[in-house]
Amino acid sequence: MTATTAGPVPGPANPADPDGTTPARRPLRRAPRRAARRKGKSTALTVAMGLMLVYTVLPLVWLFISATKSNQTLFDSPGLWFGDGFHLFDNIHDVFTYQDGIYLTWFGNTLLYSVVGAGGAAIIATMGGYALAKYDFVGRRVLFALVIGAISIPASALAVPTYLLFSEMGIVNTPWAVLLPSLASPFGLYLMRVYAADAVPDSMLEAARIDGAGEVRIFFTIALRLLAPGFVTVLLFTLVATWNNYFLPLIVLNDPDLFPLTVGLHQWDSFAHGGSGAGDTPILPLVLTGSLLAIVPLIIAFLFLQRFWQSGLAAGGVKQ
């Protein structure tokens, strides 16, 4: 007979492991730490975005509140709170009737300069960017390098040469002195070149050429539709730049009937701080109300074209 030894029956080294093997040391649980770290980053980002929102919206709030005040309450009431009475509609009426309604003339000039200048700049940039991206010709890289170099040149550095050139051409103090420089957008050309390189497939262009389509027809019927998001993006950038253009019209225009809103409102502001004006109408509320009305078209344009703008920026940076 076989003798048995009394005692505990041998079993697995670790009750949790039925095969009797010793498990490897489990890593420390870092999920709570990562979650806390991620939550901290999210909180910091939220605070930063909140501060940026306040920094951006606060001047607009101040402008709207100030446009509702009379000349006296502008100085007697807090800047971020309403005064005694709501004078916004009275101020709007005074803006449109002051100096025989010259504000409407300035608004029309700004609309002309912006629509023609921004629209022309967007079309030229789209055609040029498409050509640089899809056609292989001598000097293409050199030309693209010049475009990149032109982006780094500030507009103020070209003000005096532009004035002297336009003076020789005889177009100073004419709408052409504002429109012609607005048609050139090196940044728009660069953006459209980068966007067109991926947005327009070469195979589609080759198929259109095999079917007998000309280059002009290919661009306007095929490529332009694919480039529409980028076109709207450039249009928005140039529209804002042209609408807010101040320095160029200031040096090339001296007729008040040709001023855009930026120069005209600055002239009113100079009258307000200089103590001069026409009649008994206070000018400072007109400057603030006119500035408020001047930003309304840009807000409408951004709200209407926002979806094209966002898709254009996203699609332009994605490789396919």
Describe this structure in words.
This protein has 320 residues and is mainly α. It has one domain (88-316): MetI-like fold, CATH 1.10.3720. It contains 14 helices and no strands. The protein has helices at 31-67, 73-76, 88-97, 102-134, 140-151, 159-169, 176-182, 186-199, 202-210, 215-226, 228-243, 247-252, 261-274, 284-316. Helix 4 runs parallel beside helix 7 and helix 5 (140-151) crosses helix 8. It is globular, with a radius of gyration of 32 Å. The N and C termini lie far apart (81 Å). Mean pLDDT is 83; it is low at 1-9 and 312-320.
Which CATH-level-2 architecture? Orthogonal Bundle
Helix/strand order: HHHHHHHHHHHHHH
Helices, by number, come to: 14
- In CATH terms, the superfamily is MetI-like
Helix content class: 55-70%
Separation of the first and last Cα atoms? 81 Å
Q: Structural class of the secondary elements?
A: mainly alpha
Strand content: under 5%
CATH topology-level name: MetI-like fold
- CATH uppermost class: Mainly Alpha
Oligomer: single chain
Number of strands: 0
